[in-house]
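Hi R.,

As promised on Friday, here is the backbone we talked about, encoded as structure tokens. Could you run it through your design pipeline when you get a chance and send me back a sequence?
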């Protein structure tokens, strides 16, 4: 094989191995070869059960606001529910699984859903302090949906979204999307339970990921996006970048050869 053929073979090999194919970049593809898209039912999001260190926002209202003012923390008006104010004024679940509400005292909440906690607080208020005519209205929410994301995304770190349900596509979009060198086929979700930690990889390029129990996140989930092999090779993410790398190497090789020859 002459030098031209060798160079051409080298060029094709580098382009073939270093370029990232479009199939690795597109989310939610149909991989069964069918043209029609059948309805896909998403995995039902299970109610989150509280763990220690969670922060709750609890608001108690009534016909006469003065009657319930002693139960609410000082700066817990609707307009002040920012991320920082909820950290200081919300109710943190301690290591024993309790929160401390003014007058009501300690209430065990670990392992309960927010709806179950709301019912528990309303029942205690009506039993010990008020009658039904007071129209007690209790709202219990998590103080933001918090998750941590790391790896090949536009913006890493701990994020907080003020909504009840968050799927992994929303979390990634809120973090600046996965970079071109991120592996969308093996995104790791680390989830903590009272019994231990579960680690699971999901393929975001497959539309059937919607059926995964990890498609919908739970508060305090950790997401890690691994890099593709092309990033470690450093040959270029696209065909143009790869050609540029080859041209640079050939120029360097030619320069070294001429210097040694002289």
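Update: got your reply. Pasting your designed sequence below so it's all in one thread:
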């Amino acid at each position: 094989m002459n030098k031209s053929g060798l160079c051409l073979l080298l060029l094709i090999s580098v382009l073939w191995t270093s370029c990232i194919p479009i199939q690795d970049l597109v989310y939610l593809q149909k991989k069964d070869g069918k043209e029609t898209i059948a309805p896909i039912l998403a995995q039902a999001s299970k109610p989150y059960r509280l763990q220690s260190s969670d922060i709750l926002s609890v608001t108690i209202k009534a016909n006469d606001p003065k009657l319930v003012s002693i139960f609410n923390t000082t700066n817990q008006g609707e307009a002040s529910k920012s991320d920082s104010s909820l950290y200081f004024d919300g109710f943190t679940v301690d290591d024993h699984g309790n929160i401390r509400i003014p007058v009501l005292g300690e209430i065990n909440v670990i392992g309960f859903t927010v709806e179950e906690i709301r019912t528990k607080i309303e029942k205690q208020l009506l039993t010990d302090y008020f009658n039904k005519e007071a129209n007690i209205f209790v709202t219990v929410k998590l103080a933001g949906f918090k998750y941590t994301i790391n790896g090949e995304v536009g913006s890493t770190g701990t994020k907080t979204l003020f909504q009840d349900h968050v799927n992994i596509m929303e979390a990634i979009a809120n973090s600046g999307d996965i970079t071109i060198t991120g592996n969308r086929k093996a995104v790791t979700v680390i989830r903590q339970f009272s019994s231990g930690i579960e680690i699971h990889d999901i393929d975001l390029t497959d539309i059937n990921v919607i059926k995964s129990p990890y498609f919908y996140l739970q508060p305090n989930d950790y997401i890690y996006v691994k890099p593709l092999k092309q990033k470690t090779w450093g040959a270029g993410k696209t065909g143009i970048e790869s050609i540029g790398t080859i041209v640079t190497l050939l120029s360097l090789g030619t320069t070294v050869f001429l210097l040694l020859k002289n």
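One thing I noticed while checking it: Strands lie at 55-61, 91-92, 98-101, 105-108, 137-142, 145-151, 157-161, 182-193, 196-202, 222-227.

Thanks again,
M.
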